[in-house]
Amino acid sequence: MKIEILGCSGGIGPGLKTTTFLIDDTLLLDAGTGVELLSMERLLGIRDVVITHGHLDHIIGLPLMLATIFDSHKKPVNVYAEPAVVSALEQHIFNWTIWPDYTQLPEQQPIINLHPIEIGDVLTIQDKTVEVIPAEHPTPTVGYLINNGHNSFVFTGDTGVNDKLWPILNQRKPDLLIIDVSFADESDKLARTSGHLTPSLLTGQLEQLEHNPRIAITHLKPGAEDSIMQQCRRLLPQRQIDRLHQGEVITLD
Ligand SMILES: [Zn+2]
Ligand SMILES: [Zn+2]
User: Fold this and answer.
1) Considering the chain, what is the average pLDDT of its residues?
2) Would you call 86 helix, strand, or coil by DSSP?
């Protein structure tokens, strides 16, 4: 399984794109500003999009992508999200004010199909299973565990302390854990109110994780990257921990 990191920042700036992961060229996991890096040909290759939540940094690439491929696409793109996120996309994005209503265009065969999903669902998407797992964030949010039958990885979505996650991971034992650590320990209060982890909160959470997967930190706030990673390495010397890098291609085999 090939995971291309098109964006993994908690903000924008030169060389920084927000959460966008492309899996095996055809499955998009969140549609942040990283979508901008894809050519028309590569955009047309995306068949399915799974969305963790409706925050702008995770969806802004979707309406822009649809407008770009509108004339050239052959088949509708499937978009999967929680019901509250589907409603938010319909009411607040595809409403003819912010953007055209691509759920109705073109009339014969709209360019997107929106599929509501629930925590606990195990979707079959292309040659993979995609399990919808809980997250803790101030708006309805999920994570995803993606398995191709040989390898698996989990993306937590944006999340703070989430004790429901660890029993699931202890059963599934993914090879890779991509987890949100947006803030350094100095910003503990902000992390808690905004529903993100810090290195110390991560350390407490990982006490519940029984196996030793590769761990990749994502959603780091611009400017705090070095502090976050220094604190993670100091607190978790026994873990295989690194930050996710934009442009990185992770191959699980
Ligand atoms: Zn968020
Ligand atoms: Zn976010």
Assistant:
1) 97
2) helix
